[in-house]
User: Which sequence fits this backbone?
């Protein structure tokens, strides 16, 4: 009789543990789905793609500078390959999948639900609608600040008698300058 009671007790504890694990797995799956919903509502995937698109002109220039010694046709092919691979890699879907664990790490399930409520509200929808403009204008502000800093840097170099380095498109591996190809 004691053996039967002990067996039943152990069996019930095992079932309770399995139910607890199942509940935790369900909660994790629900949180993941909520995070996906949040990312859809806040446009995180699309915003990432827009940021990449905004970076592409600079990346084109960098790649043209890297391949300055190639004939123009080959240089442009290298730039085209870079763009194709960047666009293939940085999709909205991929970015969402990559950031889900990050949101999961820093936000509780309740915080995710609160953010979903915000983004479903009129203010949240407006925020998502204007975010591309905020990013674009914020990026312009950053470029302005960087330009001002570079001017001050070059001025201080001149005052200190330090020759300013050539632009990136005219640098070679050893830091010497080359003439850009015109073909």
Assistant:
């Amino acid at each position: 009789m004691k053996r039967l009671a002990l067996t039943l007790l152990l069996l019930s504890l095992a079932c309770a543990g399995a139910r607890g694990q199942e509940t935790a797995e369900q909660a994790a799956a629900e949180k993941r789905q909520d995070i996906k919903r949040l990312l859809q509502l806040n446009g995180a995937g699309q915003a990432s793609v827009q940021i990449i698109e905004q970076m592409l002109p600079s990346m084109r220039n960098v790649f043209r500078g890297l391949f300055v010694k190639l004939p123009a046709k080959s240089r442009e092919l290298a730039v085209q390959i870079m763009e194709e691979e960047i666009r293939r890699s940085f999709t909205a879907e991929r970015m969402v999948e990559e950031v889900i664990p990050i949101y999961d790490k820093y936000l509780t399930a309740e915080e995710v639900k609160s953010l979903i409520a915000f983004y479903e509200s009129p203010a949240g929808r407006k925020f998502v609608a204007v975010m591309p403009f905020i990013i674009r204008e914020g990026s312009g502000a950053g470029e302005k600040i960087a330009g001002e800093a570079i001017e001050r840097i070059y001025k201080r170099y001149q005052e200190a008698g330090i020759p300013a380095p050539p632009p990136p498109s005219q640098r070679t591996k050893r830091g010497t300058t080359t003439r850009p190809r015109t073909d």
